[in-house]
Amino acid sequence: MNTPFTNPSLDEIRALLERVKTIAVVGLSDSPGRPSYGVAGALQNFGYRIIPINPIIDRVLGEQAYPDLRSAPEAIDLVDVFRSPEHVAGIVDECIALRLPALWLQDGVIDETAARRAEAAGIRVIMDRCIYRDYLRLC
Question: Which stretches of 7-68 are DSSP H helices?
Fold first, then answer.
């Protein structure tokens, strides 16, 4: 039987947030009322470079959007996911193929099997936590 997924310690999460420079936000909406928009805007204000990943928009928060992680033009330090859990396995496939170092699954985005698969591939995974709240609390 698989052991339940466990997030890294708060110290490890803090270290990750301090190390990261560029965050790809998968599922970033161009609607100011959506949580992804507010969180990504706050991340920009905290000094992170945001790369929007959404195939149905062109630009958001002053940044060019890309249809998928493979299309992003620069190195990604962290993938922040605002998609429903059924999309996580495919996102993990992309992260593994691109050898991305870290994956953050926002509140309610839970796929333990995909999270363990990403970890087994060497990807640091944080699941079912809000990056905005953790930044405010830890940094």
Answer: 10-19, 35-45
In the chain the domains, ranked by start, together with CATH numbers, are 10-138 (3.40.50.720)
Virtual CA dihedral for 37, 128, 23, 94, nearest 10 degrees? -110
Of all residues in the chain, the percent with pLDDT exceeding 70 is 99
Task: Say if residues 53 and 26 touch (Cβ distance below 8 Å).
Answer: yes
- What type of residue is 26? V
pTM for this model (two decimals): 0.96
Encoded amino acid at 94, one letter: E
Scanning the chain, the segments in alpha helix (DSSP H) are: 10-19, 35-45, 88-98, 112-120, 131-138
pLDDT computed for residue 4 by the predictor = 82
> Among all chains, which residue has been given the structure tokens 């958001």?
60
